[in-house]
C-alpha cells in the first residue's frame, strides 16, 4: 500500500512541478524564496490536528520532528532555487536520481531496518532509470546541479528523520511536529532583510489570477506531501524516495502535452538523444515500479496455514552407502565395532521412517542398480524400501528414468552406456535409438512392478530433464514425451510428476508435460565463477514464477510442489569426501532453519527435504544430532 500511495503522490507532484515552472517562467530572482516561505507558513493548517490524536512527544522526538520539517523546508529552498534556474523536466530528474541515494545513505546511518533483496533490486532499477533520464539532459548547468544536490541531501535527511519520528509516535503527532518545524523555519526566513522585502513585495505585486493559481497548486502539492508522509510511515524512506522517479516521468509527459497544445506556457526542449533518453528512462522506471508492485502483491498474499504444510524426505540409497563406506564418514571405532550394522544404508532409511516420520518420501529407481546386466534385474533393495514405506503408510514419489536424483545425475548401467556410444559398421545402426529402446523397456518393467503399491503417489519421470546439469546428454523433449506416454499407458491411475531447477529452470517445458510440477529450491550454493553464494532471491520470486508459468501453460489449477529443498551443504566435492566441520561451516543449523523459514514464505504446501543421508551421518558417525533433531521436530509437530 505504501508504494501505491507514493506513486500517486509523486504523480501529483510531477503535475505540480510543471505548474510551478509556469509560474516561475519569468525567472524573477528570489521567487523561490517567496514560494518556500508560503509553503512553510501554509503548514499552520495542520496545527488543529493537535486536538485529534496528538500524543505529547518526548523531548528527543519533538526535536527530531521539528528538525524533519526544517530539513524539508531547506530541501524546498534548494529545489525551487534549482527550478528557478533550470528546466522543469531537468530538475526533478536530477533530484529524483540523487535523493534515493541520499536517503539510502542516511538510512544506513540512522535506521535499524533495511531493504530486502527484491527491494534493493527495484531500488537499483528505479535509480538507474533516473540516471538515464539525467544523462539525456543537454548543457547541464553546474550551478543548477549544485542546487539539485542540496535538495537531494536535505530531502533524504528529512525523510529518514521523519521515518524515525513515525516509528516512535503516531502519524498525527509526527505530522504536527513536522508542520511546526516547517512554519517556524519559514518565519526564520524573514530575519534576512533581503528575503523579507522580496517576500512581501512579490506577494502583494503578483496578479490575483497568478496568486489563485499558486494557491491551487500549493493545495495539490500539499496533498501529495501528506501522502508521501504516510507512505514513509509504511515503507522504508529510501524505497519511497526511489519511487520519486515517477515525479520526473509525469513532469516529462505533462510537459510534452503542454508544449504540444500551449507551447507559450513552457520553455522546454525535447529532441534527438534527449527525447530518446527521457523515453528510455521512463520505461526503466515503469519496469522498476512494476517489479516492486509485483513483489508487494505476492508478499501480501496469505500463506498456507502451518498445519497444512507437508515436510517430506528424498532418500538416496547410493548417497547413504557412500557416506558409510567413505574414509571420512565413520571413525575407525565405529567401522570395526558397531554391533547394530550402522554401516548399512537400510539403517539410515529405517531411521528416517521410524524416527523422522515424514509425510512423504521420494525414492529413486537407479537403473544401474536394478539392471546391472542387460535383462537381469535386482529388485530386492527397492522392494524393501517400498514395503517399508508402505508398512508405515507413507506415500512415495518414485523417480525413474536415466536422469534421477544425486550426482552424476545420469545413473546408467555400463552395458547401456556401451549401447549408446556404439559405432557399429552395420548400416543404419543408431546407438541412441537402441539406447532409448532399452530405456523404455526398463521403464515398462519398473512401472508394471510398482504400479499396484497402495502407497505409490506419483511417478517422477526423469529429474530436471531440461536443466543442463550433471554428466548427462542434452535434453530430448521428444523422447521425454515418449517416456511419459509409456508410463501413462501402463498406469493411467497415478499422476506423472515432472521437475525443473528452481532458480534457473524455465519450468514451462516440464510443467506443460507433467500432471504435477516439482521445483528445486536452494539458498546457499557453490558457483565456479562466484564461489559460495546465497541466491539473491526472495520468496516472492517463486510465487511470481509459479503464476507466470501457470498462465503460459494454461493450467492454473496444476499442483506445484517443492521436490528438492536443499538442506545440506552444496560443495564442489561430494559431501562424503569432506570433513564434517567443513560441511557444517558451509551449511550451519541456522542455515537449515533459515531455509525452512524461506520455504514457508514461498507459499507451497509440499516440501521434499534434501539431505537426510548427511544428517544421519552426522548423528551416527560424528555425534552431532542437531540437524536430525531439528528435522524430526519439523516433521512430527503437525502429526
From TrEMBL:
<dbReference type="GO" id="GO:0005975">
    <property type="term" value="P:carbohydrate metabolic process"/>
</dbReference>
<feature type="transmembrane region" description="Helical">
    <location>
        <begin position="145"/>
        <end position="165"/>
    </location>
</feature>
<feature type="transmembrane region" description="Helical">
    <location>
        <begin position="91"/>
        <end position="111"/>
    </location>
</feature>
<feature type="transmembrane region" description="Helical">
    <location>
        <begin position="212"/>
        <end position="232"/>
    </location>
</feature>
<dbReference type="GO" id="GO:0009341">
    <property type="term" value="C:beta-galactosidase complex"/>
</dbReference>
<feature type="transmembrane region" description="Helical">
    <location>
        <begin position="33"/>
        <end position="54"/>
    </location>
</feature>
<dbReference type="InterPro" id="IPR013529">
    <property type="entry name" value="Glyco_hydro_42_N"/>
</dbReference>
<keyword id="KW-0472">Membrane</keyword>
<feature type="domain" description="Glycoside hydrolase family 42 N-terminal">
    <location>
        <begin position="366"/>
        <end position="468"/>
    </location>
</feature>
<dbReference type="InterPro" id="IPR017853">
    <property type="entry name" value="GH"/>
</dbReference>
<dbReference type="GO" id="GO:0004565">
    <property type="term" value="F:beta-galactosidase activity"/>
</dbReference>
<feature type="transmembrane region" description="Helical">
    <location>
        <begin position="60"/>
        <end position="79"/>
    </location>
</feature>
<feature type="transmembrane region" description="Helical">
    <location>
        <begin position="279"/>
        <end position="299"/>
    </location>
</feature>
<feature type="transmembrane region" description="Helical">
    <location>
        <begin position="117"/>
        <end position="136"/>
    </location>
</feature>
<feature type="transmembrane region" description="Helical">
    <location>
        <begin position="6"/>
        <end position="24"/>
    </location>
</feature>
<dbReference type="InterPro" id="IPR037185">
    <property type="entry name" value="EmrE-like"/>
</dbReference>
<keyword id="KW-0326">Glycosidase</keyword>
<keyword id="KW-0378">Hydrolase</keyword>
<keyword id="KW-1133">Transmembrane helix</keyword>
<keyword id="KW-0812">Transmembrane</keyword>
<feature type="transmembrane region" description="Helical">
    <location>
        <begin position="171"/>
        <end position="191"/>
    </location>
</feature>
<feature type="transmembrane region" description="Helical">
    <location>
        <begin position="238"/>
        <end position="258"/>
    </location>
</feature>
<protein>
    <recommendedName>
        <fullName>Glycoside hydrolase family 42 N-terminal domain-containing protein</fullName>
    </recommendedName>
</protein>
<dbReference type="Pfam" id="PF02449">
    <property type="entry name" value="Glyco_hydro_42"/>
</dbReference>
Amino acid at each position: 500500500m505504501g508504494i501505491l500511495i507514493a506513486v500517486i503522490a509523486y504523480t501529483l507532484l510531477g503535475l505540480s512541478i510543471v505548474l510551478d515552472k509556469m509560474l516561475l517562467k519569468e525567472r524573477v530572482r528570489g521567487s523561490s524564496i517567496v514560494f518556500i516561505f508560503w509553503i512553510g507558513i501554509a503548514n499552520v493548517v495542520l496545527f488543529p490536528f493537535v486536538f485529534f490524536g496528538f500524543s505529547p512527544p518526548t523531548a528527543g522526538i519533538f526535536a527530531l520532528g521539528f528538525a524533519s520539517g526544517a530539513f524539508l523546508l531547506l530541501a524546498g529552498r534548494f529545489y525551487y532555487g534549482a527550478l528557478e534556474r533550470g528546466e522543469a523536466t531537468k530538475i526533478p530528474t536530477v533530484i529524483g536520481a540523487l535523493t534515493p541515494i541520499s536517503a539510502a545513505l542516511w538510512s544506513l546511518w540512522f535506521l535499524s531496518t533495511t531493504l530486502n533483496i527484491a527491494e534493493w533490486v527495484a531500488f537499483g532499477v528505479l535509480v538507474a532509470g533516473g540516471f538515464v533520464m539525467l544523462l539525456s539532459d543537454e548543457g547541464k548547468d553546474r550551478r543548477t546541479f549544485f542546487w539539485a544536490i542540496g535538495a537531494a541531501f536535505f530531502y533524504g535527511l528529512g525523510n529518514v528523520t521523519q521515518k524515525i519520528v513515525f516509528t516512535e509516535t503516531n502519524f498525527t503527532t509526527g505530522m504536527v511536529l513536522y508542520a511546526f518545524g516547517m512554519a517556524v523555519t519559514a518565519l526564520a526566513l524573514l530575519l534576512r532583510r533581503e528575503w523579507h522585502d522580496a517576500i512581501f513585495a512579490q506577494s502583494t505585486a503578483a496578479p490575483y489570477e497568478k496568486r489563485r493559481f499558486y494557491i491551487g497548486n500549493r493545495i495539490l502539492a500539499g496533498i501529495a506531501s501528506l501522502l508521501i508522509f504516510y507512505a514513509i510511515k509504511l515503507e522504508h524512506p529510501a524505497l519511497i524516495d526511489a519511487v520519486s522517479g515517477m515525479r520526473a516521468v509525469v513532469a516529462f509527459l505533462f510537459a510534452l502535452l503542454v508544449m504540444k497544445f500551449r507551447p507559450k506556457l513552457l520553455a522546454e526542449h525535447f529532441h534527438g538523444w534527449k527525447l530518446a533518453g527521457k523515453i528510455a528512462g521512463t520505461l526503466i522506471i515503469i519496469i522498476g515500479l512494476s517489479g516492486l508492485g509485483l513483489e508487494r502483491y505476492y508478499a501480501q498474499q496469505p500463506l498456507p496455514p502451518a498445519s497444512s504444510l507437508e515436510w517430506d524426505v528424498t532418500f538416496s540409497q547410493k548417497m547413504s552407502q557412500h557416506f558409510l563406506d567413505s574414509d571420512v564418514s565413520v571413525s575407525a571405532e565405529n567401522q570395526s565395532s558397531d554391533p547394530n550394522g550402522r554401516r548399512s544404508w537400510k539403517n539410515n532409511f529405517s531411521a528416517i521412517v521410524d524416527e523422522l516420520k515424514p509425510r512423504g518420501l521420494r525414492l529413486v529407481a537407479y537403473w544401474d542398480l536394478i539392471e546391472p546386466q542387460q535383462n537381469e534385474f535386482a529388485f530386492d533393495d527397492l522392494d524393501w524400501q517400498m514395503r517399508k514405506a508402505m508398512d508405515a503408510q507413507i506415500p512415495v514419489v518414485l523417480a525413474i528414468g536415466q536422469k534421477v536424483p544425486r550426482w552424476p545425475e545420469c545413473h546408467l548401467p555400463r552395458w547401456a552406456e556401451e549401447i549408446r556410444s556404439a559405432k557399429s559398421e552395420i548400416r543404419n545402426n543408431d546407438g541412441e535409438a537402441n539406447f532409448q529402446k532399452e530405456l523404455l523397456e526398463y521403464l515398462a518393467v519398473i512401472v508394471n512392478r510398482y504400479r499396484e503399491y497402495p502407497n505409490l503417489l506419483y511417478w517422477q519421470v526423469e529429474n530436471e530433464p531440461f536443466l543442463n546439469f550433471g554428466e548427462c546428454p542434452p535434453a530430448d523433449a521428444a523422447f521425454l514425451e515418449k517416456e511419459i506416454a509409456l508410463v501413462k499407458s501402463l498406469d493411467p491411475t497415478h499422476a506423472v510428476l515432472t521437475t525443473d531447477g528452481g532458480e534457473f529452470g524455465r519450468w514451462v517445458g516440464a510443467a506443460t508435460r507433467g500432471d504435477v510440477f516439482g521445483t528445486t529450491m536452494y539458498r546457499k550454493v557453490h558457483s565456479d565463477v562466484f564461489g559460495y553464494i546465497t541466491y539473491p532471491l526472495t520468496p516472492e520470486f517463486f510465487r511470481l514464477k509459479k503464476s507466470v508459468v501457470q498462465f503460459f501453460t494454461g493450467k492454473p489449477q496444476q499442483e506445484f510442489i517443492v521436490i528438492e529443498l536443499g538442506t545440506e551443504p552444496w560443495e564442489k566435492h561430494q559431501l562424503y569426501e569432506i570433513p564434517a566441520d567443513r560441511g557444517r561451516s558451509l551449511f550451519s543449523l541456522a542455515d537449515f532453519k533459515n531455509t525452512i523459514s524461506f520455504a514457508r514464505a514461498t507459499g507451497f504446501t509440499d516440501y521434499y527435504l534434501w539431505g537426510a543421508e548427511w544428517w544421519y551421518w552426522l548423528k551416527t558417525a560424528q555425534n552431532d544430532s542437531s540437524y536430525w533433531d531439528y528435522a524430526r521436530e519439523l516433521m512430527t509437530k503437525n502429526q
